Amino acid sequence: PVILAYRRGTKAERSFWKRAIEDNVTDDAGLEKAIGLMTRHGAIADTIGRAGHFGEIARDALAPLEATPQKSALLDVIDFCISRVN
């Protein structure tokens, strides 16, 4: 979501992201601003949507493989990666 918010942001917002990342801004005000920018630009929702989309692509790629513990583990990883955003 940070990359999407950066790309979609104004020049001033991109300056905030650059400063926050380079200077390792971790205070409450910086976090609040970052969350606000990601929300304003729909970056969080779009990231969740993209995760689901690419998860489906990964599942489709695994579909032709026979059922094995390895395939099951890969499917579990896909599910974990998508479900952890909730």
Main attributes of the structure:
86 residues; mainly alpha; 2 domains; 5 helices
Q: What report would you give on this structure?
A:
The chain is mostly helical. It folds into 2 domains: 40 residues, no CATH class; 31 residues. It contains 5 helices and no strands. Helix 1 packs across helix 3, helix 1 packs across helix 4 and helix 4 packs antiparallel against helix 5. The mean pLDDT is 95.
* Percent helix range: over 70%
H/E order of the elements?
A: HHHHH
N→C terminal distance: 14 Å
| Rg for CA atoms | 17 Å
Describe the structure in brief.
With 86 residues, this protein is an all-alpha fold. It is built from 5 helices and no strands.
Topology:
Layout: H1 2-8, H2 11-22, H3 28-40, H4 43-62, H5 69-83
